[in-house]
Amino acid sequence: MLDEGERALFRRLAVFAGGWTLEAAEAVCGGLGIDRGDVLNLLAQLIDKSLVVMVEHSSGTRYRMLELVRQYAGARLQISSECAELQRAHVAYLLRLLQSAEPHFSSSARRAWLARLEPDHDNVRAALRWAAAIGDAPLQLRLASACCSFWGYSGYWNEGRGWLEAALSHNGSEIADYRDLDQPASCPLQSVIGKALYGIGWIAWWQGDLIPARAWLEQSLALWRKLDDLDGLGHALFFLGYAVLGQGDVVGARPLAEECLAIARRLGEPWRLGFAFVGLGNVARAQERYAEALGCYEESIALFRELGEPWTLVVALGELSNTALRQGDYDRAVLHCRESLKLCASLDDTWSTSRCLEDMAIALCRQGDATGAARLFSAAEALRETIGAAVPEFHRPDYAPAVAQVRAALGPIGATIWAEGRAMTPEQAIAFALLPGTECHVPSVERPRSSSVLATQYELRIFALGSARVERGGQSLAAADWGYAQPRDLLFHLLCHRRRTKEQIGLDFWPDAAPSQLRSNFHRTLHHLRQALGRADWVVRDQAGYAFNRGLPYWYDVEVFEAHLHTAHQNENTDPARAIGHLEEALGLYQGDYLQENADDWHFPRQRALRERYQGALLLLGKLLAGGDRHAEAAAVYRRAIVHDSLLEEAHRGLMRCYARQGERGQALRHYQSLVETLRAEIDADPAPETMVLYQQLRSGETANI
Q1: Could you tell me which of 246, 219, 236 has the C-alpha nearest to residue 275?
Q2: Side by side, which strands form the sheet with 554-556?
Q3: What distance in Å separates the CA atoms of residue 253 and residue 265, rounded to the nearest whole number?
Q4: Which of 69, 6, 52, 73 is nearest to 33 (CA)?
Q5: How far is CA 589 from CA 443, 467, 570, in A?
Q6: Sequence-distant (≥ 6) Cβ neighbours of residue 661 within 8 angstroms
Q7: What is the pLDDT of residues 45-65, one digit of tens each?
Q8: pLDDT-based confidence at residue 703 (cuts at 50, 70, 90)
Q9: Contact 8, 33 (CB under 8 A)
């Protein structure tokens, strides 16, 4: 039974969709008979009665109701006299939250604030639906406008554009009146409308929809001029310059860039000045005044480096690398792409990552590496599709011919390589682009040992090939640091998958547990995992499930192993020496089977797949060494493959050929007899026909073409 205060809070909490924080519960549900200071105690009582669940999230502690419980509470709220007031308090809280986040989107705190807002995205959606349902167009617009930056930077482009278009389309309402430039500047909502127009134009540009993007941004610009809002003017001028250039209007773009620079100087903010130089550089590049463009970009990069803002630095480096490509300076383009990609790896910026991968791919294409270019083009394509982005219009003159050249060079095998690239995760694509095969060097490709230097480069170093081990800050985590085995197992489970729901994890870890027990087991295990790793945001959660946060600085032997194999296969026909180097690096990482001491079975498919890749790498290395007349080295590799799998006849045949080519035909024949005995003893079978043919050739002395 609930007392009066518990009943009131219980029904009021139904206003939240997707959970809430204590701060939100106090702000929205406090009052009307409940003191804000009492909310925590009442929440604790509802938790004790299993009506509310407490959840540890990467952004802090949150609370939620099971959906059936929330539906019941919602029904009670609907028939209460406080429903409308609760809904408005909910919207007001979300507006304050979004507005408090806004200043941080132009700083290095952007990622933290995006993570803070993500759990409340369902609350924002619910609030927007409610405002639309009651026909409160200004409220709907205020909320949609406040959410522009979150939608834009989080990649919710289609959703954000849909809400913004709906909010701006109330013809005949006061919103249509406020968009009228003849209205006095004191009219309410005009700055909100200006921001919404800017937001929708900004998103449309990212999506490659240039005609509406330009129209929306021009409307926004007109409103900001009327309001004499220099902040809004600066933002709108910058992106309008991109949209105008995308339509080929270089003449129209220059005054926009010059005005943007003048406003930045008036406001005296270095980050604005940096972006203004980017805009001027874009115009100069479009006019093929490359020296001027490079000077502008270098000015912006110097400003952004001084500010220490990686988000802004990635933008400027991307334009600089693209300009180097236009000049044919591929080494410089790769240098800047490499720096950009390292920054992107820590930012989780899908759009910028795709741009950098495309520029790197163009450089590889023009240097004759069609296979590597195809992998990066396709990986970038898959990334762009996840957020609905398009290749920027004024970059297409470089992009389209390079893609066509790559497809023509690869012919029928191109489709397979393209599919492999699309299957790569962003982390794998970045690792692949940064390998030495792309004229870059990654210090961590060799299996690292504990050292103070590496400890400062990576917060975590994770070893799964052989005995599992995790190092934090250069120190190995002991069994006591994990509490028990499952937290460490959960880490490797999340590393195996891009996203996993709680239910999917439960099937592997606690298949017989009841739902309530599964939830308890999971959250306890996740709590211990986060404690062991030293920070909660190593494991993040979104609508698709839980994931290991690959945006933070870490090194994982499996990913480096696979990245080396990617590059080895890319070069096996065109540059065998490079392929050999990558194969040796990969094989050096393989210290044993994946999680070889783990007694559970969830990891067996991954273990088998990696074991097969290791085996294939040995065979390929033996083949390439033998092809280079390095028969003694090849023989050692084949012997290693046979130790790994004594029934692998391809390795036995390779070893027999190596013996023969070194003048040891008798040793090759004896090895065949040993193979016959092994096959009969272990699987009661004879050698394969091709092995028998090789034996007959060796026996008859026909060794010239073996």
Answers
A1: 236
A2: 475-476, 469-472, 460-463, 554-556
A3: 19
A4: 6
A5: 14, 12, 19
A6: 626, 629, 631, 703, 706
A7: 999 888 988 887 766 788 999
A8: low
A9: yes
3-state SS assignment for residue 465: strand
**Secondary structure percentages of the chain, helix, strand, coil, to 5:** 75, 5, 20
For residue 615, CA distances in Å to 160, 587, 652, 675 come to 48, 9, 13, 18
Q: Helices 557-571 and 576-589 sit at what angle, rounded to 10 degrees?
A: 160
- Residue-wise DSSP of 65-86: --HHHHHHHHHHHHTSTTHHHH
What are the φ and ψ backbone dihedral angles of 534, each rounded to 5 degrees?
95, -10
If you write DSSP's letter for every residue of 388-442 in order, what string do you get? T----GGGHHHHHHHHHHHHHHHGGGHHHHHHHHHHS-HHHHHHHHHSGGGT---
DSSP codes joined into one string, 503-515 = HHHHHHH-TT--H
State the virtual CA torsion across 138, 139, 140, 146 in degrees, nearest 10: 100
* Burial readout 439-457 (b: 16 or more C-beta within 10 A, e: otherwise): bbebebbebbeeeeebbee
Q: Is the Cα torsion angle 43, 45, 48, 50 positive or negative in sign?
A: negative
Bridge partners of residue 61, in order along the sequence: 56
- By the 8 A CB rule, do 99 and 79 touch? no
Instruction: Return d(Cα 229, Cα 102) in angstroms, integer.
Output: 16
Q: In the beta sheet, which residues pair with residue 34?
A: 31
Three-state helix/strand/coil letters over 530-590 = HHHHCCHHHEEEECCEEEECCCCCEEEHHHHHHHHHHHHHHHCCCCHHHHHHHHHHHHHHC
Both tokens of residue 114?
């995006």
β-pairing verdict for 554-556 and 460-463: parallel
Model confidence over 667-699: pLDDT tens digits?
Answer: 888 888 888 888 888 888 888 889 888 888 888
Reported as a single tens digit per residue, the pLDDT across 505-517 is 888 888 888 888 8
